[in-house]
Structure formats: C-alpha cells, structure tokens
C-alpha cells in the first residue's frame, strides 16, 4: 500500500490571533525524559546511542557543516526537551521547533543554543519570544508584531526570513522577497539572523528553488544587506542534493532514523513498549471487543495489552498487525480501542502477566520496524511517531 506523503502532516501559518495556552500536563510531558519503571502503562524508549550515531552520519555527509536539528512536533514524538538536551551535549547549537510552547519549554529547561520557531505567534507570544531570545520565522506583516515587542523591551528580535520558492505553503514569494528583506533590514528592532526555504523534494524542481533563493540572497547583498545563515536542506536533500547544503542543514527525519535514506547509514531511535496485563483462554464461539469483532473458531489464548489509540497505537490495519512478545511475532485481533488491544498468543503457554510487549522496536533477535507498523496501518512513519501520546513517558537508554 502507498504511504501518505511524508510532508502531509505539517501546516504552518504566519500569525495567530490568540496566545497559546499550554496545559500543565502537556508542559511537563514534553519537558523531561522519564526514568525506567516496571509500570504496565505504555512507554516510549529513546535509544541515545542510535541518536548519536545518526547525528555523526549527518555530519559526515555534510562535511561538518552546522546542523539545525528539527525537533518540532515534540521532536517527531521523541520528546522535545530530552532530545534537545542530548543533542546540545553533542555540540548541536541550533534547534527548530514548530510551536511557541516548544520554544518556551526548551528555554525553561536550560537549552542555550539558537532556537528557531517555524510556527505562528500572537502579540503575547511575541513578548515571550523576545524575552527568551527565541528566533522567529517571518514572511509577513507579523514581523511588525515582533518589532513592537522588541521595542517595548529595549531589545532586538532575531528573525529568519522564510522565502517561498515554490512549495506554496508559507513564506514571502521569492519575487517579492528582495523588497521584503529591505523593509525588515530597515527595522532597528529586528536582527536578520538567517534566510531559508523549504524544498518540494521533486528532483527536477528543487534546483530551480535553490536558484531562486540564491538570487534573493544576491539581490540583498547587492543592496549591502546581510541575510545571515542560508539553509534549505532537510533530510532528503542531505541524502541526495549536496548543492542545497549551503551554510547549514536542517535534518529532522534523519536524526531519528525513521526511514532509510541514501548515502546515510541510519538507525531507529524510537521503540514503543508496554506489558501484558491479562491472559485468558477463549472457547469456540467466545468473542472479543465491541460488536463481537472477533469470534474464536477454536480454543484461543489471548493476551490483553494496555495500549490503545489514545496512546498512539494505530487503530487501522489490525488484520495484519503484529507485536513482539518473548522475541516472537504475535498477531493482533479484534480492534484497537482507546486503551486496549488484544493479541492471539495461542501455543505460548509461557506468556504471562507482566511480559514486555513491543509495538515497534527490537526484542531479542526479532525486530518490528516503525515502517512495517505504518504500512499496515496505511499511514506514514511520521504520523505514527508523532502520534505517540506526549504524556507517555520517554525513557532514555544508552544502547
């Protein structure tokens, strides 16, 4: 089955009318990695050794150019603050997020490097961005909101100018960018820190986009305006379009090893696990779940898991989905509900309450990849990873 487009899950906007309220539960969930526990509730394991490996592969590929780690969407589900802390310890000095609340969480938790917010902001949030020294993507009149906040605080707001070279979502159109850059450069409260674009990832069109960005930068330099750091290459361009490396690269997917990419030897960082909470034997004719979606045709041993779609387990594709228990694959049956799923473990009398279960990841000599899970759910690796409930503990392991 064909996967959903890899970029289909992100939408950006230039300004929002209201400040974002961050629920306390979500704020604490994205802030700190959790310690390992014996809880039956699901948890997300983050393999730091694989994270470091992927970073080294990216640096090798781009000849040690600076890396702006894209940690938007709660670091693609991996936990924004925990990932940022680890990467900062690996000498990553630039981070990109998609929401003001993520930028605030980074600053509140001691992240000192450059933090660039791709997403929208209100006047109240502009005050936060300036006060916390967060850089902001601008491409519209919203830059004036930042200028007001900077002026009121006696500071300069740092910005990266987003140029739309053909993706068509957000950004000042490339043919209007020179005049926009002149206007922003004339604002004493604004410091231009960088300029960037997002590629369509179409091999025939990406070079055209890169040429458009180059022309915009050249036009600014001809006017004596410095546009700062130029960046365009996300993970796929790092893999296959070296001309786009420019002054800095912006990997997201590649950092987390979510899918294979040419010229990069990547390793998966995320695993999702839970434990068996109940084991029961069904007689022929016994059923499982609402509307009797599964009816046993033979004596069947069933394990119940406390893992449902509220946790991020994909609700579709149960007919083909599997999990790992005791190093073997076992099929899911019936339907994934909000808090539970069920597994046919017939023939494995040794499986018992408390056994570890892997939705995707490695157990013993067997591995279930996130790609397999996504394909069976007719989804994408991005949607599966980002869909992991932010309140699930993110447990860091070293190997």
Which helices and strands occur, and which strands form pairs?
Elements: H1 24-31, E1 43-47, H2 48-61, E2 68-70, H3 72-76, H4 80-89, E3 94-97, H5 100-108, E4 114-117, H6 123-131, E5 135-138, H7 143-153, E6 157-164, E7 172-173, H8 177-185, E8 190-196, H9 206-222, E9 229-233, H10 235-240, E10 248-249, H11 253-256, E11 270-275, E12 278-282, E13 287-288, E14 294-295, E15 300-305, E16 322-325, E17 328-333, E18 341-344, E19 356-363, E20 366-368, H12 370-376, H13 381-386, E21 394-397
Parallel strand pairs: 1-21, 2-3, 3-4, 4-5, 5-6, 6-7, 6-8, 8-9, 9-10
Antiparallel strand pairs: 1-11, 11-19, 12-15, 13-14, 15-18, 16-17, 16-19, 17-18, 19-20
Helix pairs in contact: 6-7, 8-9
Explain this structure:
Helices cover 29% and strands 24% of the residues. The chain is an alpha/beta fold. It folds into two domains: 62-256, Alanine racemase (TIM Barrel), CATH 3.20.20.10; 270-397, Lyase, Ornithine Decarboxylase, Chain A, domain 1 (Beta Barrel), CATH 2.40.37.10. Strands 1, 11, 12, 15, 16, 17, 18, 19, 20 and 21 form a ten-stranded mixed beta sheet that branches. Helix 9 (206-222) links the parallel strand 8 (190-196) and strand 9. It is elongated, with a radius of gyration of 23 Å. The two termini are 33 Å apart. 47% of the residues are buried. Mean pLDDT is 92; it is low at 1-23.
